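Exercise (ungraded).
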Amino acid sequence: MTSEPKQPTEEYVKSTGLKHAYAYDPDGKLSKYFGVAGIPHAVLVDPGGTVVWSGHPAALNDAIVESALAGALTEPVWTWPDETARVRELLGERSYAAALAEARKHEGPYAERVQGLVAARLARVRKAFDSGDYLGALNAAEPAAKSLAGLPEGDEVRGILTNLQSDPGIQRLIEGQRKLKAVLLKVDKVRLVADAKQLLTELEGLSEAYPDSIVGERAKAAYEALKARIP
Amino acid sequence: MLQNPIAGVLLALSGLAGAAGAQGVGTQIPLQLQLEDFAQTEARAFDDFLGRAVLLEFFAHW
């Protein structure tokens, strides 16, 4: 997507032979939302509408993409027949229980497809929780609990959410993940060696404060990667 | 004594930004995202990509 004017953009697309779909974000609202500071920048959105990655496209790897593809529709909704328009509308509102009920009124694979999306939402929450990525689980569970309300999968998500919000050990790790996220945002932008050294100290502190957890592991990995960048 | 001019300068540019910790990650993309004039696709709104994994790339013609 681009916030640039149409004519030069279309000339650019033609001259470069760009094949992928594109659209215009005329006021740059979306780039502001994602804090895009430079071009190119990419954002990966999973089938449930959750942003799972953001950064320089060259830094995107296969594992992240494969993870985002889990449970995705194999055919886009615009290929679905007109009579399923209400299903699409309800999916757009992220009302999965209503979308599933509506899809069941139609012949064809539509209910199965919606059910697949429901299962994928639940699987994403479970996977994050089981891997110890409690902040990821919380971020996925909060909207999923609303979207899946009225479905058995929604009950399961709510159970996980309750656990995430009430267990003191988990709460502490979520706090650690939030602190790490704040440091990593600074790491992405750091250019001066002196600032980088300060960030190394912060990462080391997190690594020691949260040993044997996803916070400690990721802080340590970020520490090593940042250290390698310092001349 | 003059300081080494290199010492305070820049980190290697090998650190391409891109992280699960980046801004917006973990959030739900806004409902009814207002994008205009879709091209090279049959989609006419971002909601048409519902249920699909989507890579949004911000680009410019220059």
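Further reading is listed at the end of the chapter. For now, observe: The mean pLDDT of chain A is 92. Chain A has three domains: 6-60, 68-166, 170-229.
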